[in-house]
Amino acid sequence: MSKTITITGGGLTGLSLAIALRKNGVTVALHEAGSYPRHRVCGEFISGVSRETLETLGIAETLADAHLHRSVTWFSGDKLLRENILPKPALALSRHLLDDRLQKLAIDLGVEIHTGSRLKMNPGQAGEVWTAGRKPAKGEWIGLKAHIRGISTTAHLEMHSGPRGYLGITPVEDGWHNACGLFRIDKTITARHADLLTAYLLKNGNAALARRIAAAEWREGSFTAVAGFSLGLQAHTPGLLSLGDSHAIIPPFTGNGMTMAFQSAETALPHLIAYANGSRSWPEACEAIQRQLAKRFSKRLTSAKLLHPLLFHPAAKPLLKHAPLRPLLNLIR
Ligand SMILES: Cc1cc2nc3c(=O)[nH]c(=O)nc-3n(C[C@H](O)[C@H](O)[C@H](O)COP(=O)(O)OP(=O)(O)OC[C@H]3O[C@@H](n4cnc5c(N)ncnc54)[C@H](O)[C@@H]3O)c2cc1C
After folding, report:
1. Closest CA to ligand 1's atom 12
2. Confidence category of residue 61, pLDDT binned at 50, 70, 90
């Protein structure tokens, strides 16, 4: 009989891992602090994931009707800097829909899902996987997101940057556009709730965009905000197997965080199956997973960390305007 895997955190990492493990006959219990469906701070633009990864995890069908996006325009302040066509399309679907589809699939497959269940870390406990997202940290960033309708855009993904951050707009389902940004926290901004989004855009020099967004229809309940996290490798908790954002957060401009969530589940999968079937001990499985995660992600995490500050630096604008796209993408995938 197989050993049970207990997953803490039902975002993309936890749900896709739970589905893949169940498809391989492993008994899985998943604890999610929140409930489904729900809006999350995320650009909802999945860049760099392969069909093989989605198929290995058994989740390709949940993204079958995702938008395929290729065109990108980049604005600095209110000025168009560059236009590009991505070499491979990115997938776009709201997290409201995607996470809900994944949890339904997981339940159908027999994953025992406990919503409204917030677990504590239990380092060293065999069979426990931590996929609870970013680890709390004193961070300088705030992430803001809302779905808006009635806005026309110049490309599948419009990116707007400035000295304090950036925001991307991309169409998701049902005529909605997702507007999601990351900004350096500014304590002088006094706006509250949804007004924060336009206040940060104005402060960032994106006045034309702030006006377009303010005039659009906002989807009820879709405004979300998150702060208190750091980018890059997250604090390591000895004895705890952390995957997805709990392991490392790549800067959002890469559009690669969800891909890393799926890929970390894919990386862990064979080792967790081997543990569940009794052919590998828990410490052996964890060690192999951690080694492979470092190998798979270290180049892109380092490159993204080096590139990220350049997005805000006025002196780096020529680089932002002229840097060739393909080599850049190769660095952050
Ligand atoms: C501003 C911003 C924009 C982004 N844009 C993009 C983008 O365009 N493209 C892209 O690919 N990525 C983007 N990302 C990154 C992407 O959202 C994440 O990489 C991805 O959500 C990681 O998935 P995860 O499952 O690891 O974590 P999460 O999606 O955060 O899921 C963690 C889950 O764990 C639950 N949880 C937390 N604590 C507990 C607990 N103690 N017990 C039980 N459950 C718990 C939470 O409720 C949550 O459901 C963006 C991120 C930010 C901040």
Report:
1. 257
2. very high
